[in-house]
Specification:
411 residues, alpha/beta, eight-stranded mixed sheet, eight-stranded parallel sheet, 16 strands, globular
Length: 411
């Protein structure tokens, strides 16, 4: 489809020579064009500019965007949307006073989801996951990372990743997959954790690599889950298969996982609700992207990632949803951006950069996504008529999206 967007009130994130990511004070800069147009051809941004310079073109479907903002679609770099069932009872348990960790010790949490997933057919798992993907696409997400981690057996971990790959094949959204066998220790290995890590290293990783199921590898590096030493063992093994790390760290405790991630050239370190000065120093000078998951903090009532501190230290920051059944049953990136502004004190410019150009970096797709740039994929959000882009995070309870274009096609 050939599209011509005209009379755009404001075209956001316009970059002729886009950086891979933006950091520190750069995050508060959001280049834009007022009264603009965008030309889309064969799923690619062909050209853009001011209305006074619009070219005379034929054969394009015109879309009048008067009063509306056009911007890159969201890049959600951390999700677990391939899962079975839900965990609403644990939600009630938390209201009654149990912590996330206490629920896990009772047999809830990740192992609860693993049990449900093991009992769910691949066909049914795909059906449930596709419904979630369709929902987030309508909410403006056009690139998404999907983790395994609710299987905890070789076959069910592979099943999750196959479903993610099938979603990529059947929908226009860009999908990156991550192997997260080290999400939790299954019940049957509770007293023999080393044997489960052996299984990850000797059986799961080779199978995932051989079948080409994952782009990245992840570990939940946290007290009660996997130690720094155990995390390093898995990451070192994953190097044999050229799987770049994207790891869960510092959700509840700071145990040195960030430094380990940097040591193994992690593309991103995600969560970071608990952060020390040593963690910030470890990130400085690295190519690792810190990723905050504010809707997880909202849902679990735990601290928010100190995004203001990270940015003020000159570091980059990305935002993602953490969409999963236990701690964030929502894939709404619009809410994530609003929450980052309201609870983490990010400016609208910083939050939009974190959810677009830096989100793309945290998925390894900076060359094709995250900005309005000639030659990049035409995945865009067209808002409803709004007074300014600051109104988007301000009006956090409203759906302000008019249309979503993914790879040149109207969703």
């Amino acid at each position: 489809m050939k599209l011509l967007l005209t009379n755009i009130q404001q075209l956001l994130q316009t970059r002729e020579n886009p950086p891979q990511k933006v950091s520190g004070t750069e995050m508060n800069q959001l280049p834009s064009i007022n009264n603009a147009w965008v030309l889309i051809e064969d799923g690619i941004i062909s050209d853009y500019g001011e209305m006074k310079n619009i070219p005379n073109v034929e054969g394009f479907k015109p879309i009048d965007c008067a009063g509306k903002i056009v911007m890159p679609a969201w890049c959600d770099s951390h999700t677990h949307i391939v899962y079975a069932g839900n965990r609403e009872q644990e939600f009630v348990d938390r209201i009654k006073g149990l912590s996330y960790q206490e629920i896990a010790k009772k047999g809830g949490g990740i192992v609860n989801s693993a049990k449900k997933l093991q009992e769910t057919s691949e066909k049914e798992l795909y059906k449930q996951s596709a419904k979630r993907l369709e929902e987030v696409m309508k909410l403006g997400t056009a690139a998404i990372e999907i983790k395994s981690g609710y299987g905890l057996t070789t076959e069910t971990e592979a099943k999750m990743l196959r479903v993610a790959k099938k979603l990529e094949k059947n929908y226009p959204v860009t999908v990156k997959t991550t192997f997260l066998g080290a999400h939790a220790v299954p019940t049957e290995y509770k007293e023999k954790k080393t044997e489960y890590i052996d299984l990850i290293c000797n059986e799961m990783l080779p199978k995932v690599a051989k079948e080409g199921l994952a782009d990245y590898v992840d570990v939940f590096c946290e007290d009660g889950y996997f130690s720094v030493a155990e995390t390093e063992r898995i990451l070192k093994e994953a190097q044999k298969y050229k799987l770049t790390p994207k790891i869960h760290v510092n959700q509840f405790n700071a145990i040195g996982g960030i430094a380990a991630g940097v040591k193994y050239n992690a593309l991103s370190v995600d969560h970071l609700e608990v952060l020390t000065d040593e963690d910030i120093e470890a990130l400085k000078g690295s190519e690792t992207m810190p990723v905050a998951l504010p809707s997880c903090s909202y849902f679990l009532s735990i601290p928010y990632t100190p995004g203001r501190e990270l940015i003020d230290a000159g570091l980059p920051l990305a935002l993602a949803t953490d969409y999963n059944p236990g701690s964030t049953p929502s894939g709404n990136m619009n809410f994530v951006v609003s929450t980052a502004c309201i609870k983490m004190r990010l400016t609208p410019e910083e939050a939009i950069n974190a959810a677009t150009i830096n989100g793309a970096y945290a998925m390894g797709i900076s060359d094709t996504h995250g900005s309005i740039t000639k030659g990049k994929v035409a995945s865009l959000i067209i808002t409803k008529a709004v007074p300014s882009y600051g109104y988007l995070p301000y009006s956090f309870g409203s759906n302000l999206i008019d249309s979503v274009i993914i790879k040149g096609e109207l969703v």
